[in-house]
Specification:
Elements: E1 14-17, H1 23-31, E2 36-39, E3 43-47, H2 51-62, E4 68-71, H3 74-87, H4 92-101, E5 103-107, H5 110-117, E6 124-126, H6 131-138, E7 147-151, H7 159-167, E8 171-175, E9 178-182, H8 186-197, E10 203-206, H9 209-218, H10 221-229, E11 232-235, H11 238-246, H12 261-272
Helix pairs in contact: 2-3, 3-5, 8-10
């Protein structure tokens, strides 16, 4: 096997991945192509610590209380199904029935994948997969008097979306089925930054804006920007890219069309596999 082995275009490359939910999948995609992977999951996804409000929302939804449903993440829909399974299994059938009845609007492709596992598909898909993309799509619809379920994530209220829905005469019914928590210990993250400063990391691939925010919460901004300046910075899509730019970091690798792990891996191969280490 040589350094130019076309089957392993990332050989001799070291790539840091802050991913947590699909850490093993992302690592295997890169390792099969020869990369050395530094695993440093920055954010952990957990069920909401307060299931009662989510269960109340589910009761409303299953009782026909929503005309539309905005799905922001596939993870959110999975968490709703998991909460039903663990706390209210009798709601599964009416929940799926209502999913088929309402006008469902997905932010990008990921919620649609979970719907397809239930034999369903979204009515509409927002592209780009961002809040502005969702609002742009909703602007084409008559929302007056509509009761709109909104699956959000973390504790982010998404004021821009809520203000828009109110301005169009809609009643927003938001639900937050999961929260984010720090994953890797601070010492592990600091060690990763040190490796980047020493030029030991060829690339770091961010897959959520929460990863970006955790880094900048932990490490003084200028020090972190200097470390990232020694490393190729990749972002899975426009939301993450915008979060990096907001902190003064310009990502060099962003997939053009599809915002998930395989296109991100291909984009890294195109950038790193075409030049010598």
């Amino acid at each position: 096997m040589t350094d130019s082995d076309p089957e392993r275009p990332l050989q001799n490359r070291c790539i840091a991945i802050p991913e947590s939910r699909e850490l093993d999948l992302f690592a295997s995609l890169l390792e099969r192509r020869g990369a050395s992977v530094l695993r440093c999951p920055l954010v952990d996804i957990r069920d909401t610590p307060q299931p009662a409000p989510v269960l109340a929302w589910l009761q409303t939804f299953c009782g026909g209380g929503c005309d539309d449903l905005l799905l922001f993440t596939g993870e959110g829909l999975r968490r709703l199904l998991s909460l039903i399974e663990h706390h209210a299994p009798a709601l599964r059938e009416p929940f799926v029935t209502q999913l088929a009845r309402v006008r469902s609007i997905a932010r990008g492709p990921k919620p649609g994948r979970v719907l397809r596992e239930l034999g369903l598909k979204p009515t509409l898909v927002a592209d780009p997969a961002t809040t502005p993309g969702m609002i742009a799509l909703l602007q084409t619809l008559d929302l007056q008097g509509r009761r709109i379920g909104v699956q959000l994530y973390g504790t982010e209220p998404n004021a821009a979306l809520m203000d828009f829905l109110a301005s169009r005469g809609a009643q927003a019914l938001p639900v937050w089925p999961y929260v984010y928590a720090d994953a890797a210990a601070d010492a592990e993250v600091l060690a990763l930054i040190e490796s980047m400063q020493q030029g030991c990391v060829d690339a770091i691939a961010f897959t959520s804006l929460q990863q970006v925010e955790r880094l900048f919460r932990l490490i003084e901004g200028e020090r972190l920007r200097q470390a990232l300046a020694h490393t190729l910075v990749a972002a899975i899509g426009p939301v993450v890219a915008d979060a990096l730019r907001a902190h003064g970091v310009q990502p060099q690798v962003v997939p053009e069309d599809s915002y998930y792990l395989k296109p991100l891996t291909r984009a890294l191969i195109e950038r790193l596999g075409s030049s010598a280490p």
